[in-house]
Amino acid sequence: MSNSSTPQWQRNMRALWFGNFATGAGASMSLPFLPLFISQMGNFPKWELTLYAGAAFAVTFLSQAIVSPLWGNLADRTGRKPMLLRAAFGMTISATLTGFSPNVWVLIIIRAIQGTFSGYINNAYALVASEVPSDKSGSAMGKMTTGTVGGQLIGPIIGGYLAGMFGYRIPFFIFGFMMFCASMVTLFFVKENFTPIAKKAKSGIKEAFAGIAHKRVVWAMFASSLLIQAATNSINPIISLFVKQLMHGHGNVAFMSGIIAALPGIATLFSAPKLGELGDRVGPQKVLLWGLAFSGIVFFPMFFVTSVGFLGVLRFLIGIADAALLPVVQTVLTLESPTQSVSRIFSYYQSAQAFGCVVGPMLASGVAGIFDYRHVFLMTTLLVIVNLVMVGIAYRKDYKR
Fold this sequence. Notes:
Blueprint: H1 8-28, H2 34-39, H3 46-78, H4 80-98, H5 104-117, H6 120-131, H7 137-166, H8 170-189, H9 205-208, H10 215-233, H11 239-246, H12 253-282, H13 284-299, H14 308-323, H15 326-336, H16 342-370, H17 375-400
Helix pairs in contact: 1-6, 1-7, 1-8, 3-4, 3-5, 3-16, 4-5, 4-6, 4-8, 6-7, 6-16, 7-12, 7-15, 10-15, 10-16, 10-17, 11-12, 12-13, 12-14, 13-14, 13-15, 13-17, 16-17
Membrane topology: Multi-pass membrane protein
Transmembrane segments: 15-37, 49-67, 87-110, 144-164, 170-190, 217-243, 255-275, 287-310, 347-370, 376-395
GO cellular component, one term: plasma membrane
């Protein structure tokens, strides 16, 4: 299938697209109904169940946030392909073991271990970012995003069907198998011409930022990705419980939760490439600010939803906003980052994302436990407003100089 006339970066992008698809699909297969899986492990009251669900979801990203800069530093010395293989094989093992969890504490521990090995998607972005021509960076990041969100789209639907038919453990085993497939594709089809940074060269955060002209903007992208992930993922620990409440406990809650979880992916799948190309034409700043404003407009009405159908429509619209957010952030980082430090910059970005995936679900679990599930959407609207103001100030200050 290799074509000598096709540039190597495009062949790598195709293989990594599949890897992102497998990672997105596998990881999203079980997350929407993780609380339902936990509820089978004991008779927990509402506040305890939401707390355990938030912890089980967030702990993976907490450990990921801690170790990501270490992996990024190593990637700039050894290459991105070894880091892709490390992540893929590590998640193959940890995802499979999660399916054997006998209780909630073992589940949380294994998910924490999984976080230390994760990072396939961001390393895939870093490898493509280090090779893609600058005038094609927006469309390339948009296409890579379709792999991730395409997997996130199909994962909850398939996982919800299988969980409803065969139990909540099966999706974890399928996740492990999909990561094994991603490992094989990466091993045999990704080729990297890598020049490591000199051993004597310092590799701290100060050196990584040394060649960046618009440092405020890059820092704003880190903070923005944290807030985007906090807002977007805040509903994940409680989505199946909220859907169950809206359905009054009737029907296949797992399957419907999977559909609701997947709906943003449908919109993002079709929107991301077009918005990436738009960013190449009009500049990523305008697309990012528009996406933040639109996501705030969509999140707020979720507070008032009384039916699964209305929630589904708003979740679909939030997928359009998502297509204008993280891919554009990745494009900005691609354009701003020197080649010799791109893996470190993307690892800091991954840590920021991971911290967002910790902060959002834990805040949401607290809000849902104290008030009600729908109050989570007021919290996400506030996060989006803060993000919009912060990004606008950073751009105004950095580009005014």
